Amino acid sequence: MIDVVIIEDDPMVSMITEKIINSSKNFNVVKVFFSGEGVIEYLLKKKVELIILDMYLPDREGLDILEELRKKEKKEELFVNTIFVTASNDKKHIERAFQLGVVDYLIKPFEFERLESALKRYFIKKNNSTLEEKNLTQKELDELYHGINIESQSELEISTPKGISKKTLEKVLNTITVEPNKEWSARDMADSLESSSVTMKKYLDYLAEIKKIRSDISYGNVGRPEVKYRLIK
Predict the structure, then answer these.
(1) With a threshold of 0.85, does the pTM exceed it?
(2) Cα atoms in the 13 Å half-sphere on the side-chain side of 224
(3) Which residues contact 221 (CB under 8 A, 6 or more apart)?
(4) Residue 160 pLDDT class (50, 70, 90 cuts)
């Protein structure tokens, strides 16, 4: 059983998160904090394995807590795994979080299935027998650490619609898979693959149609709504 601590100032979010975690027989929430006060001391004393951490807390930022924890861990010879669940979609926050070794980063409002998927991948990686061996294949490494199944990602429809190149389709999907937490617009993909936005939207829409990726409408402050695409996990 993996002990989990939730650090979240919103009582409703913490309650939902706790319910999702405790619904798994492999995880158990042992403590909930609504601020950063006392968190470090508790984690070092109890040696908890996994924390669910919010970025914005009443007294400090989640990144500050994680940075302090990482410094103290060296002396204690332990490592607390972390999943961020936060409304912060700031790129600098996200990059710094992964530099500090977080397991995953979920942006609120998150789907319940997304958190369940993150927990499942963490449990599989922790308990996979291949980790006991000295050497991993590239396929095993990708599946364990990136959640990527290379074989399944190339299993696109044998018969693609007219105007859809299977080779280009694989390039688009591979590009999205490399950054599984990123939301892509047709313009983003066009810039990445040096193509046109119109062409890339056609491929992205098809991938969404065959359930390889999902599409959502993003409403910005200026201009018309834009369709965003991201990997289905």
Answers:
(1) no
(2) 1
(3) none
(4) confident
Q: How far is CA 113 from each of CA 81, 96, 119, rounded to the nearest angstrom?
A: 20, 25, 10
Q: State which amino acid sits at residue 220.
A: G
CB 62 within 8 A of CB 84: yes
In order, the DSSP letters of 215-226 are EEEE--SSSS-E
Which residues are paired to 4 by β-bridges? Answer: 29, 50
Token readout for 132 is 């006991």
C-alpha 126/C-alpha 121 separation (Å) is: 8
150-231 carries CATH number 1.10.10.10? yes
- pLDDT on residue 114: 86
Tokens linked to 10: 């919103």
Fold agreement (2-127, 150-231): no
Between the alpha carbon of residue 85 and those of residues 55, 114, 168, the distances in Å are 8, 11, 34
Please give the backbone phi and psi of residue 219, each rounded to the nearest 5 degrees, phi first.
-105, 110
Q: Tell me the backbone φ, ψ of residue 176, rounded to 5 degrees.
A: -70, -40
Interval 93-152: pLDDT, tens: 999 999 999 989 999 888 888 888 889 888 877 776 444 555 666 666 666 666 555 444
Q: Enter the tokens of residue 204.
A: 């992205």
Residue pLDDT, tens place only, 47-77: 889 999 999 999 999 999 999 999 888 777 7
- Is residue 6 a contact partner of residue 18, using CB atoms and an 8 Å limit? yes
Is 2-127 a domain of CATH 3.40.50.2300? yes
Nearest to 22 by CA among 102, 128, 122, 116: 116
